[in-house]
Sequence to fold (456 residues):
Amino acid sequence: MTAMTFNVTGKRVVVAGGGRSGVAAAELLVSRGATVTLSDSAKSLPEAGRLRDHGVVVELGPHRADAFTGADLVVLSPGVPPTQDVVEQARRAGVPVIGEVELASRFLQGKVIAITGTKGKSTTTTLAARMLQEAGLDATAGGNLGTALSGQVAATHPGALHVVEVSSFQLESIETFHPWIAVLLNLSADHLDRHASFEEYGAAKARIFMNQQPADWAVVNADDPGALALARDARARRLDFALDTTLADGVTVENGAIVRREGGAAAPLMPLTSVRLPGRHLLGDVLAATAVGCVAGVPPAAMQRAVEGFRGLEHALEHVSEIQGVRFVNDSKATNIASARRAIESFERGVVAIIGGRFKGGQFEDLGDVLRARADGVVAIGESASLIHAALDRIVPVHDAASMADAVRQAFALASPGGVVLLAPACSSFDMFQDYAARGRAFKAEVEALGKMHTQ
Fold:
């Protein structure tokens, strides 16, 4: 279904969830002539006044079942589980239920480049869009990152490239969403507090390929067996990328350069010295973005300019400060076990890791070997502290902290000159903070306060 055939004029639409995506969906729907109710279980919503000015009915507190069952369409924000009771009631009443990304895609023109995976989505999305822009293409990054896809519809046109970060929550509610290029970065346990199993989580990720056709492209991490398994049945053409696996065709690293291998030959794209990002896993994200650039016809010089000018994202292995020889690094985006492991692996020794928050599944034991090899200690925060102790006490000293301020001070006391205090929570933030960004900002504020104490 396209913008030409999908029409919401005069329809009663309920948007469930008042986060960034829900607000954007409500505004899009109103602009297209729908009668919109936004329902959010919170007691307040900062955007409520603006939405009401646009004609949106804002309902706060418990969702009203009759609003959902009486609608012509229900649109879910990513944070609203599709199994929630009022959503199920709407389905039983015959009301169509779709996600915000699905809604937006029905109005988009141009092409969609969709990027998913357990770790690295934001870095890859941002860098791929920059490569396209360096080539003079009209590319916008958004979705689960930055501007919600619904917020991009007003500026869409046939030549637009929408580079979209998509999560499992967004993919589980798609129907016709059709990426020209679909990127699967990796797969490891995450969001098991919402998905019933790892298999269900993986199946949601695999939906990124669901509507692709033979003229489309699937970009897949050949180093990741889980990603390869999910992409096995994709109908699209394949372009793999890999750091470790030998590729006859794909994007990889050879002789100090990122290269495109094709037909037995390797064409250099840029020297590895162009990459200014810390951590080997971030180099993998650069390869993924480069593969997107190859498919889209971006000249190597434009790719190299984009990579050389990209210093990384806030909250992703972000260098914060150095105090008395101890570096402080913010990887608050490391919200699962696999991403925390990659963050710790980015440093050779002397790591004091701040870990914890609301547990999303997986095994903290999976951090044991990298902590044993690299860490001087762990500071546990949040609801999962007891789980961290149970998994890691025999491997590395684990200390409890009641707040981020306490965690930063304790970690600094444990660290040696030349060491690293690393915020790599391996958990969501929602027990202590609004989101991972608020957690990262709190870490940086406490590091700044600590620095002032030691310069007085």
Observations:
- The CA atoms of residues 20 and 326 lie 36 Å apart.
- The domain at 12-95 is CATH 3.40.50.720 (Rossmann fold).
- The mean pLDDT is 94.
- The chain is about 35% helix and 20% strand.
